[in-house]
Task: structure prediction
Amino acid sequence: MPHYQKITNKLKEIRPLVHKTTMNKYKIAGLVGAGAIALMTFSTVLAEDNMMGRNDGEHMKTNASVSIDTACMKTAIMARDAAVTAAFDANYTAMKAGLTARTSAISAAWDQTNAETRRADLKTAWTNWNTTAQNARKDMRAAKNSAWTAFKTAAKACRGGSASGNGDISKDASL
Result:
């Protein structure tokens, strides 16, 4: 039997095994992927519970003895939302000013006839824009966090300072 026929016969023997192994790899990869998604979802839920200050399933309990001043809670929510809205407005204003400045700087850079000067001016325009955008995002994040901190303090006062009842404000925690 010629040598190439021996190789062909060996390949025919090996091919089903390789196909079976490859399919098993895909099945294993799928299971690992599904497990990773489930783990991420579960850890996100746990992290959210911990961020809201809820431990040991406390948010699942109903506590009828907790008295909440609804007018106080409404005022706290309105103040929080006004502060978050102001943070978004300030972010919009800063970003718009930064874009306007970037547009002017890029336009001026392209008016340069010297390529080296133009390149330096373009780099400066983009660097300034990146700094402006980064600062605007940082300022908005700080303002939102401040609004939420003030809200949590006010909400606690509306509940009479009790530690339970965090589940009552969790519906407003979507911002």
Notes: The chain has two domains: 1-51, 68-172. The chain has four helices and no strands.
